[in-house]
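Dear colleague,

Thank you for sharing your sequence with our group. We've completed the structure prediction you requested, and as agreed, I am returning the results in plain text so they can be pasted directly into your records. Please verify that the sequence below matches your submission; if there's any discrepancy, let me know and we will rerun it promptly.
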Amino acid sequence: MADKPEGSPSLKEQFWDPVAGFGVTFRTMFRKVVTEQYPKEKFPTAPRFHGRHQLNRWPDGLEKCIGCELCAWACPADAIYVEGASNSDQPDPDGNSQRYSPGERYGRVYQINYLRCILCGLCIEACPTRALTMTNEYELADDNRRDLIYEKSDLLAPLLPGMEQPPHAMQLGDDEKDYYRGEFKDHGATAGAASSAADQGEGS
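Please find the predicted structure tokens below.
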């Protein structure tokens, strides 16, 4: 019997391998089709699902963002743009406070371009004050590009009871260290408001 030419396919390669390649197809073609009725029926996401970003607040309403731009540096898609500015305890000509955060600086401009964002979560890991977290909101589609660039006003967490819209003076402590350490003094806010503010963005 003549030897099989070197390099020629074996019987297994000729007959079995092509059939085995359709194994997944054959196993699933008789199963019942599962159709999700989205958006009429929406299933809850996982607790730590990476969805739309949120800029969190302290329990008195001051912003946690200090405008350090570390989130923008950490973003692999270059989807975040931040411009920081200095806080001031000097009142403006109308006598109003110019303080937006407990630190020296705050995020004057904050934008996230969801045309670029890949929702990887590296930005929230880079944030030193846990100002930036991610919610469970995933419906980010739109019919134009402009509305997919979220501004600071779109990303800021809503004011809870007991919070005051910035700018205003620090109410929870004498300096920023009291805020970062959680050593809050009583300023009349309810305990529920303080705990809810502390828990903002825990789905990240």
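Summary note from our side: The longest helix spans residues 11-20.

Kind regards,
the structure core
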